[in-house]
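Progress against Task 2.4 (sequence-to-structure conversion) is shown through the following example record, which the project officer requested during the mid-term review.
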Amino acid sequence: MVDRSFGDLSLAALYDALNPWGPGDDFYLGYVTSARAVLDVGCGTGRLLRRARADGHRGRLVGLDPAAAMLVQGRRHDGGVEWVLGDLRTRDWDAEFDLVVMTGHVFQVLVCDEELRAALATVRGALRPGGRFVFETRNPGARAWEAWTPERVREVTGPGGDAVRMWHEVEQPVLGDRVTFTETFAGDTWQDPRVSRTTLRFLGPDALSAVLHEVGLTVVDQYGDWGRGPLTPTSPEIITVARARP
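Structure tokens generated for the chain above:
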């Protein structure tokens, strides 16, 4: 888990190392490769779209991210992908896509009700009738934040060969469906650690379905893990496939 909003070039260069390709990427890649026009919201370094293009996708691929440093990483491997700086508050499209994806738990940064509804309305507007919106959010029943402790340190090698360590610390007490935490990066050659503070929202499946329906999106599938296992009260993920109603 990495904060997708940071804009530091040196941290953006670490993103793929901290988040190696995994089952979730394979899950999304299957949807991307079968869609003619795809919008990846919060695309980060654009790894998913770059992989789809490398695998032979010939349609339109658009990556949207608010962090210019992330898009710098994507543009280094352009491959005919459209890189757009911004977010769902500042950009919109009119029925241009067959698929919108939101990976890496980006959905959870939509903390306020008004912000969430506005973002989902933009997603619906970007989709052609019958188009799909595919995203994941952590299942609140699994209480993933309880494992985000300073004792769990991850270490990767940066582009310059230096070791960089990363850890999280949750602000207590956790109240309601919002979790606030800090994410600290420390490098062997860095003068000071770099710290970001993030709040994520943990919505349950019923609340998700209700807000999606409100903006013209209907849930057609929900899974509890990347192997398409059933969604249970303690499944780690709520992976949602929603269809744009006419």
